[in-house]
Specification:
This protein is of the alpha/beta class and 204 residues long. The chain has a single domain, classed as Rossmann fold (3-Layer(aba) Sandwich). Helices cover 28% and strands 21% of the residues. The protein has 5 helices and 8 strands, in the order E-H-E-E-H-E-H-E-H-E-E-H-E. The protein has an 8-stranded mixed sheet, with helices on both faces. Helix 4 links the parallel strand 5 and strand 6. Helix 1 crosses helix 5. The chain is globular, with a radius of gyration of 16 Å. The mean pLDDT is 94.
């Protein structure tokens, strides 16, 4: 399978990139050239995720999209998502998996609210969650086969290989999940359709 990877140099994205090269061809959009020893089963395209031409070039010929883009104060998630979705439609790509945040999962005690809107979330600032939410709502409105993997607190940790997942909410009592187990789970969603068109909470 040929995968377009956005955010492939970040903490979770780099795990996805490293794993994916063993079984897939990976086309990664990066802001600057990266030259280090790696399995040469893919291609790095230097560009900007807010540039339509760069996104379309990355998506050409791909079968699926994985986005591990981080949010920032410039709303990069919600600004890039319309371009990614347009590019997917143009290139007839149906499957997209993104890395979200537990803040946009439904609150367990009030399903009419998101976690970041309640005291279930410990974060004082809601800026990142709001950016993730806008991106989620765009995916939800699309007719694409999307999955948003929503980890809670993400220390580097280690690869344990066992964790809990639950559709649209964070598993009860979940406190953390390592970047390694999160990256592994994201990549596995290419073959697993159980969480199709839904958010999935992941934690230990």
């Amino acid at each position: 399978m040929k995968i377009a990877l956005f955010g492939g140099t970040g903490r979770v994205g780099s795990i996805v990139h490293s794993n994916a090269q063993f079984t897939h061809e990976v086309i990664r959009l990066t802001r600057q050239p990266i030259n280090h020893g790696r399995i040469d089963k893919g291609l790095d395209i230097v560009g900007n995720v807010l540039n339509k031409e760069d996104i379309f070039h990355t998506l050409k010929g791909c079968d699926a999209v994985i986005s591990c883009l981080n949010t920032d104060k410039n709303d990069v998630l919600s600004r890039s998502m319309p371009l990614i979705l347009e590019g997917m439609r143009t290139h007839n790509i149906k499957r997209i998996i993104t890395c979200g945040t537990a803040g946009i999962l439904d609150a367990r005690k009030d399903s009419n609210q998101y976690r970041f809107q309640t005291n279930e979330s410990k974060r004082r600032s809601t800026t990142a969650a709001e950016d993730h939410l806008r991106a989620y709502l765009m995916l939800e409105a699309s007719k694409l086969d999307w999955t948003i993997v929503c980890p809670t607190y993400l220390p580097e940790g280690e690869r344990l290989g066992h964790f809990r997942t639950e559709k649209n909410v964070l598993p009860d009592g979940g406190k953390s999940i390592s970047i390694f187990d999160t990256g592994d789970f994201i990549l596995n969603q290419l073959e697993d359709r159980h969480y199709l068109r839904s958010r999935v909470g992941i934690c230990y």
